[in-house]
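ugh finaly. both done.
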Amino acid sequence: MRRGCALLLGLGGLAAGQVACAQSASVSLPGTIQAGDAFSMQSTGNGKAVLYIVGLGQVLRRDVQLGEKTSFPAGSLYNAGHYLVILVQGSSTTGGSLDVVPAHQVTDLSFLARPSRLPVGLHDAISGTVYVFDAYRNLITAPMPVFFTLSNPSSAEQQRTLNTRYGSAWTEMDSTAKEGADKFTARAGGVSSTRMVEQVPGDPCKLTLRARPEGQRLALETDPVRDCSGNAVPDGTIVTFTENYNGAQSTVDVPLKRGIAQVEMAAHSGARISVASGVVLGNEIHCER
């Protein structure tokens, strides 16, 4: 550590902006330490002095005997960042700086998965973002592998392996073909975090309409309605029945119940009756009486 003129800080009675020269004392710094590690500093000179270590969120003060080693136990400096070191003896100061870097061992993950609920069979529809932290909640910026998996009992497991950049990693996954709860897991350095992603049936894929006479009316009913992956479309989904006859039109909206939609409509001779749900059209029936 070089000796000479240094800017005094407003700490422990020091006047901000005052300049002094220290020729009799100096301190040897480690340069870089890992967060939470024990470390020491060797000073030169004679007599007593005060040592300050100043950083964002942390300030350490030690009374030291010049010419001796000053030790700091594990956990003394735990916030990663750049620290200013000041050795004060009377009106003279000297000092320098050191850097505290995050520890290399992962002890915690922050894992964000979006969305929590979505339809089946969508490409790159699920996103996952991971942030890796050490024991002191410092973001570990050194690159490290993160393993992502998305799985459920009825579909093949999806896997991704990515290296973190500036402490984070991000990926996208396809929603699986079968409805149910998928386990979305991120793992780094032996630590894992899991989120559940609920996958629900998609839009109806095919509609089949059947009809039977009921006196002067027609009883209309769909086959069980499913999405394109074969999952049953949930009850409450609206199915629209449309009857066209003699230039007139009649429509009825019916929610699915137990997977099918049922309704009765007037049986007009020559009428054409169709069924639809969303953008999906079913077959058409012609009424002949």
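ok and the 2nd:
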Amino acid sequence: MVSQFEIIVFGRVQGVGFRAAARKQARSLRLSGWVENLADGSVRAVVNGDAARCTRFINWCRVGTGYSWVERIEIEEMKPEPLGSFAIRY
């Protein structure tokens, strides 16, 4: 079953390679979507794909990279829509 989620990650997640690592993780899980920095210092990602793989990506977001520090995340399930290859938005 295809699922889609918006994930907002709060903490020290900008300037530490979080977006690049998220792209690598999402692509390894064969998920579609994108990730971007937000003005408030958080990072937003939208992922689309197999529900179990989306859950694995969400769990990865709870931890992040060795250089990041995740304080909390917010998750919202969305209506699935076609998304391209997982990319970083600038």
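summary for the 2nd one i guess: Helices lie at 18-28, 51-63.
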